[in-house]
């Protein structure tokens, strides 16, 4: 039996995933920390132990307005390191793919992502398939939100760990997914508007459908 690693950044996310999917012995829900570097290092440590068939970056996230509302869930069809590249002299941005020394995009299995999103939606939680951005700095202004939306029109959400988990998974030949429940809008920072409880409840419900969908 291959195990499924669910990598989350904090204890509250781990508890939500365990409430949803904890009854399935295949699921190994681990706190791999906040940020892409820590998530990559800890995911790699875990995968090095062997026996995993899938790695999932899961947690709460910012949702792009009009793409993913608070309380909804986004399942990634691509995981993109949004700020991995070079700034140009005129303030533009060149993704690392155009610089010729790497890629900022890791694809996920779109059919699996669609199956998961459909199952979540049929459990009564709004769910969408889209690109999930990984950022080192959570977006805090309308200007940055607009830049990201223009640069990545397929982006539905942003988190801070997905690209790290997916990079580690790729190094071990393990497929990766990302599942994010939206706690706040990507835009001007207003911590008082974050709906963490709502997002964790959505994460729990989304996790509850994983055992039947990830067979
Ligand atoms: O304070 C709490 O109770 C609490 C419970 C669960 C999670 C948290 C976090 O702060 C998790 C941080 C984690 O969330 C992701 N995140 C959420 N919103 C955004 C965003 O707008 N932009 C980028 N990342 C976001 C991210 O993956 C963080 O690591 C607190």
TrEMBL record:
Functional description taken from the UniProt entry: Catalyzes the hydrolysis of futalosine (FL) to dehypoxanthine futalosine (DHFL) and hypoxanthine, a step in the biosynthesis of menaquinone (MK, vitamin K2).
Organism of provenance: Paenibacillus cisolokensis
Gene that encodes it: mqnB
The entry's keywords: Hydrolase, Menaquinone biosynthesis
Catalyzed chemical reaction(s): futalosine + H2O = dehypoxanthine futalosine + hypoxanthine
Similarity comment: Belongs to the PNP/UDP phosphorylase family. Futalosine hydrolase subfamily.
Pfam families: PNP_UDP_1
Name of this protein: Futalosine hydrolase
Known EC number: 3.2.2.26
HAMAP family: MqnB (MF_00991)
Matches recorded under InterPro entries: FL_hydrolase_MqnB (IPR019963), Nucleoside_phosphorylase_d (IPR000845), Nucleoside_phosphorylase_sf (IPR035994)
């Amino acid at each position: 039996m291959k195990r499924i690693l669910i990598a989350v950044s904090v204890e509250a996310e781990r508890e939500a995933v365990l409430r949803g999917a904890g009854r399935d012995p295949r699921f190994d829900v681990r706190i791999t920390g906040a940020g892409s570097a820590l998530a990559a290092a800890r995911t790699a440590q875990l995968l090095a132990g062997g026996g995993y068939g899938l790695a999932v970056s899961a947690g709460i996230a910012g949702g792009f307005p009009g793409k993913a509302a608070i309380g909804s869930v986004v399942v990634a069809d691509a995981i993109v390191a949004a700020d991995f590249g070079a700034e140009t002299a005129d303030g533009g941005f060149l993704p690392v793919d155009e610089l010729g020394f790497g890629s900022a995009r890791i694809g996920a299995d779109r059919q699996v992502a669609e199956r998961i999103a459909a199952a979540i939606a049929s459990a009564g939680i709004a769910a969408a398939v889209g690109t999930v951005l990984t950022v080192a700095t959570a977006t805090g202004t309308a200007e940055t939100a607009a830049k990201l939306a223009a640069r990545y029109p397929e982006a539905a959400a942003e988190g801070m760990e997905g690209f790290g988990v997916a990079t580690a998974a790729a190094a071990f030949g393990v497929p990766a997914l990302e599942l994010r429940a939206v706690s706040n809008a990507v835009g001007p920072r207003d911590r008082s508007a974050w709906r963490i409880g709502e997002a964790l409840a959505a994460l729990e419900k989304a996790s509850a459908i994983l055992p039947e969908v990830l067979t």
